[in-house]
Amino acid sequence: MMTSFKYRLEQKEPRTGSGGITRGASVKDFPASIGIAGVSMRLEPGGMRELHWHANAAEWAYVISGSCRTTVIHPDGHAYTDTFEPGDVWYFPRGYGHSIQGLGPDECHFILIFDNGDFSEDHTFSITDFLTQTPNHIVAQNLGITEEQAAKLNQGEAYFAKGPVPNDSSSSGTYRRNSELTTPHRYPLLAKQPRRAPGGGTQRTVTVEDFPISTTMAGSLIELQPGALREMHWHPNADEWQYYISGQAEMTVFLAEGHAVTEHFEAGDVGYAPMGAGHYIKNTGDDVCRVLIGFNSGHYEAIDLSEWIAGNPDDLLSTNLGMSKEEAAQLPNDTLFIAPDPHKDQNQS
């Protein structure tokens, strides 16, 4: 049976709790996704994904809608608090303790991407679980409280918790001295000027060069116009994990030796292309297709078919492809990146 490179993440039975809901896909759920795992999470205003850390993966996230607040602790003792809006990205290195809380006024929806396919959001290290599994007299000594107070903390893992909304109208809001566009853990991807292919679409990419703390992961947001094609290409340095935010698309993953798999995607689906595997994404719907893409490398590398062809002499191409030299001369002489629908009038607005 051929491997499937599609997983219907938003149709998975969710894990729910006070103030939050989550759906995750590791390699156990999605066998093709050997190098990357992902989670779709939603937090109500005031809903919190409790203080926790991941021992085997870094966390890269993109906010689709709503607003949230994160806190993160570094090994040197410095703590950072940031607010995120739609289009913003965060990155927490492996093992760094952090939390996420919805700020309202509406639900916050974000996608978490992890640089380890064997990661599971259900197997994280939570502060409440840590306290529960430690003897009360140790917790009391550690926190400077009584054993009776420590016993009240011994209630099992919270995972999600619901509290006051710490927004800017609340005294629970976080003080910040200066206005900043970027911080060590926050990058405003949607504010970046995109790479444009007129009539075809756009791409915004964030790498370690833009976002220095994100050493193990890069990300991209692609928008494809109806009928447009993110051309045939591959990534020599990373696996590709896709979350389809809106629209419809088709992808074929080429696996060499005569093997290829074609999948069709809708909003809420996840796709995957292994490192080095050729693939494309074509918008097959009537609306713009928006795809969030995560890579398990801090550096973005891609080899596009048109650019590869353009780098070769015509006589070599004609011999290799069984074409006349005149036909070979008509092949791309520059990169296409995103090819518009050839049947669409490009002069239409």
Give the tags:
6 helices; 7-stranded antiparallel sheet; single chain; mainly beta
Describe this structure in words.
The structure is a single chain. With 349 residues, the protein is mainly β. The chain contains 6 helices and 26 strands. Strand 7 (68-73) and strand 8 form a beta hairpin. Helix 2 crosses helix 3.
Short summary of the structure?
With 349 residues, this protein is mainly beta. It is 11% helix and 39% strand.
Layout: helices, strands, pairs:
Blueprint: E1 6-7, E2 15-17, E3 20-25, E4 37-43, E5 47-53, E6 59-65, E7 68-73, E8 79-84, E9 88-92, E10 98-102, E11 108-114, E12 125-126, H1 127-132, H2 136-143, H3 147-153, E13 160-162, E14 186-188, E15 195-197, E16 201-206, E17 218-224, E18 229-234, E19 240-246, E20 248-256, E21 259-266, E22 270-273, E23 278-283, E24 289-295, E25 303-304, H4 305-310, H5 314-321, H6 325-329, E26 338-339
Antiparallel strand pairs: 1-22, 2-3, 3-4, 4-11, 5-10, 5-12, 5-13, 6-9, 6-11, 7-8, 7-10, 9-14, 15-16, 16-17, 17-24, 18-23, 18-25, 18-26, 19-22, 19-24, 20-21, 20-23
